[in-house]
Amino acid sequence: MSVLLVEAFYGGSHKQLVDLLQERVDDCVTYTLPAKKWHWRARTAALYFMQAIPASPSYRVLFASSVLNLAELVALRPDLASLKKILYFHENQLIYPVRKSQERDFQYGYNQILSCLVADVVVFNSAFNMHSFLSSISTFMKTMPDHRPKGLEQLIGPKCRVLHFPIQFADVTRFLPEHKLLLRQSQTPHSSSSSSEDSPDLSEITKASSTASAREPPNEPPVKKQSKAQEPQQGANVEDTERQPASRQCADQEPEKPRPLHIVWPHRWEHDKDPQLFFQTLLKLSEQELNFEVSVLGETFTDVPDIFAEAKEQLVSHIRHWGFMPSKEDYLRVLCQADVVVSTAKHEFFGVAMLEAVHCGCYPLCPKALVYPEIFPGSYLYSTPEQLCKRLRGFCKHPQLVRQHVVQVNTGAFSWDALGEEYRSLLTAGSSSSSS
Fold first, then answer.
1. Are residues 405 and 420 in the same domain?
2. Do residues 137 and 201 both lie within one domain?
3. Which of 115, 151, 185, 333 has its CA 20 to 30 A from that of 316?
4. SS3 for 174?
5. What is the pLDDT, as a whole number, of residue 151?
6. Both 289 and 362 in a single domain?
7. How confident is the model over 298-309, as pLDDT tens digits?
8. To 10 degrees, the CA torsion angle through 147, 151, 155, 157?
9. In terms of Cα–Cα distance, which of 77, 70, 76 is closest to 159?
10. CA 79, 56, 66, 165: dihedral to nearest 10 degrees?
11. Does residue 377 share a domain with residue 259?
12. Can you tell me the distance from the alpha carbon of 107 to that of 46, in angstroms, rounded to the nearest whole number?
């Protein structure tokens, strides 16, 4: 047990990472606390682990998330101070959103800065996370009334590196509807590229959705061209229907009405994910009598914003799934059934749920901010609530535009297969200079 994995908030992406490392990296031992009362975990976890972790001469590496005050732990346990200490940032408290500036507790960000100073390697799950942390240290410390330390970012910066969160993508083939299977089968090895040059401009899709009609569809719809055998049965326009074999339609048969657009929101039920914006947008679509279904997934914690109960009542006729799904298989099945996955986050340092949804064939719509421009081409980003509403409105009217679209995001780049060797190297005992 040369690798000591310590997680003070064992839930969500924190749990996923620890479990993956435990499974895929040899010689690990894990100590955790349940994912409850986050603020108390940040304040007191070091004292708990001081007693919970037995002394052992076989420890070589200590890996902990930034919820733990690493400085306190190594002070309380001097035997751990000599280990190669790795601090992993899923999120940082220097820019974590609070509803009112006076609500920000200085201690949480301060703990993270102290932890960085005693760590040998500081790892961030995205460049956005790293740059936002380092660039905010000086401003953050100015909230101290006097005797402010200087040059902390110069001390911490050389230790820092970006190593994306490794996702263990499941095989979801058995859950995919026919049109997603056809798209996946028709892809070339390069069609999952995240290159913006290959990605169709979403403005073109939006424009097409506003002008398309069964009478006169766009001449060059911005969707992947398919052979007749690959044309999806659902969401087809009149011309698509007319191209179907005679055995599947009669000359006087009305074209099949597309099933409603299925929108999924798979995020934590907390204010920083801005559920208010999401539900306000859906209510506008509903008021315009647009046809759509919605699945609201994600974990809930102690305080659930009131907007969820209100929206459930107001959108009852549109709801397909509502609430957290403990079964990962059921969760992935819903993602595979969905057409569009939406983020309205005011805080996101990586976004596992969005990438999992894209892996399941969902079309992503994300804010043009936070980590999203680092992962998603500009064609999937929106700048204002009005843009989000406009794009969803167009997709509600013409769901075939998303059902025939191959998403240009290389999810494989964020998989354990792509990142595993870097993590194994990171967790190899040695000097910090050789590993950073």
1. no
2. no
3. 333
4. helix
5. 96
6. yes
7. 988 778 999 999
8. 130
9. 70
10. 140
11. yes
12. 14
Residues 296, 188 share a domain: yes
- Helix 202-211 and helix 385-397: axis angle, to 10°? 50
Q: 309 Cβ partners below 8 Å, 6+ apart?
A: none
**Domain span at 199:** 173-414
Q: How many domains does the chain have?
A: 2
Statement to judge: residues 55 and 141 lie in one domain: yes
E strands in 113-215 = 121-124, 160-162
* Amino acid type, 133: F
- How far is Cα 306 from Cα 199, in angstroms, rounded to an integer? 38
Q: pLDDT band at 255, cuts 50/70/90?
A: low
User: At 408, which CATH number?
Assistant: 3.40.50.2000
Same domain, 272 and 213: yes
pLDDT for residue 191: 39
Question: What's the CA gap between 402 and 179, in Å, rounded?
Answer: 11
Separation of alpha carbons 269 and 305, rounded Å: 7
- 65 and 107 part of one domain: yes
Q: Return the structure tokens found at 425.
A: 């190297």
Q: What is the DSSP string of 263-315?
A: EEE-S-SSGGG-HHHHHHHHHHHHHTT--EEEEE-----S---THHHHHHHHT
0.90 surpassed by pTM = no
Q: What's at 379, amino acid-wise?
A: S
Strand pairing partners for 407?
Answer: none
Please return the burial class of 213, using the count of CB atoms within 10 Å of its CB with bins 0-12, 13-18 and 19+: exposed
Q: How far apart are CA 388 and CA 365, in angstroms?
A: 8
- CB-hemisphere CA count at 13 Å for 431? 2
Read off the tokens for 336: 């595979």
Q: What is the rounded CA–CA span in Å between residue 95 and residue 92?
A: 7
Angle at 349 between CA 347 and CA 353, to 5 degrees: 90
For the chain, what percentages of helix, strand and coil (3-state, to nearest 5) are there? Answer: 45, 15, 40
| pLDDT tens profile 361-373 | 999 999 999 999 9
Cβ contacts of 100-107, under 8 Å, gap ≥ 24: 105/39, 106/143, 106/144, 107/42, 107/43
What's the pLDDT band for 2 if we cut at 50, 70, 90? very high
Strand arrangement, sheet containing 3-10: 28-34, 3-10, 61-65, 84-89, 121-124, 160-162
Provide the 3-class DSSP secondary structure of residue 47.
helix
